[in-house]
């Protein structure tokens, strides 16, 4: 890909973010380095690995919410990446025309850590937006998927205008460290709970998800959003190993008005993504982008240990850099 083509790609990604219904699918890779990937845990027994990972997520979430970050550079770095990401989404939504596209970004995440919640809470101090995690209530906030279908607007003192407020909708189809079962309801707490409602990465996520009504509702919302016209989905930190979500992505691609861009951490991820999706090639509305598709300003240069060659990576902060440059100038060609 030439430099001109790379620049055109960046401009097109920014244009899609401004003009389309904006969706993100965020996987475990986005929470590095604070939380390791399952494959990084040196333990053969699957149940033991799940227990270790869940405990690491719980510890990180507790430190995050208790602001015990003075000696936690990995948690601090991950939080900063998420915080800058959320801020740039709000900047994008403020550029969009609410008469054509709702000023809402949907964040679907298979992670059950609390980085997105904490980052959004901090960004709320600097930006005006609505954070919607699907819960309603005051002392006991209950999860209900019907709460996702909301927009909030300002109106003039004389009811002479309305102005839609940007909103972030957080949908967690694998549960969360602060979800607590209460009879037939799920309560959303402001702290990690001892027995969180989560779907652990056991290889049986599809079965676990469909046997749990709340997880089923989260995935139903995911599918409905991808079926909407004029939508874009950016995938980051997710390798499509979850067979159920991979199946939903394959179904969503049948929507000709949906555009999906999956960002790979390394160039080798292109073949991995295709294999996990059981594709032999990409589609017109499904594209895989890896570090080689971007110039140095949008990828990270790494040095192999004990070797003399360089390799590149693409992470959440690189996607944020792409969003950061978006402006109405990207729409001047009228397309």
Can you characterise this structure?
- The protein is 35% helix and 19% strand.
- Helix 3 (73-95) crosses helix 4 (115-123) and helix 3 (73-95) runs parallel beside helix 9.
- It is built from nine helices and 15 strands.
- The strands form five sheets. The protein has a seven-stranded parallel beta sheet with strand order 3-8-2-1-11-12-13, sandwiched between helices. Strands 4-5 form a two-stranded antiparallel sheet.
- It starts with a helix and ends in an 11-residue tail after the last helix.
- It has helices spanning 3-19, 46-65, 73-95, 115-123, 205-210, 213-226, 243-252, 269-277, 316-324; strands spanning 21-26, 104-109, 130-132, 135-136, 142-143, 153-155, 162-164, 167-171, 179-182, 185-188, 231-236, 258-263, 286-289, 300-303, 310-313.
- The longest helix has 23 residues, at 73-95.
- Strand 12 (258-263), helix 8 (269-277) and strand 13 form a beta-alpha-beta unit.
- The protein is globular, with a radius of gyration of 20 Å.
- The chain has 335 residues and is of the alpha/beta class.
- It has one domain.
Strand order of the largest sheet: 3-8-2-1-11-12-13
List the helices and strands in order.
HEHHEHEEEEEEEEHHEHEHEEEH
Biggest sheet, open or closed, and with what strands and sense?
7 strands, parallel
Envelope shape: globular
Q: Got a strand count?
A: 15
Radius of gyration: 20 Å
The helical percent reads 25-40%
Task: List the total number of helices.
Answer: 9
Which stretches of 5+ consecutive residues score pLDDT under 50? none
What do the pLDDT scores average to? 88
The SS-based structural class is alpha/beta
Distance between the termini: 23 Å
How much of the polypeptide forms β-strand, as a percent range? 15-25%
Summed up, the domain count is: 1
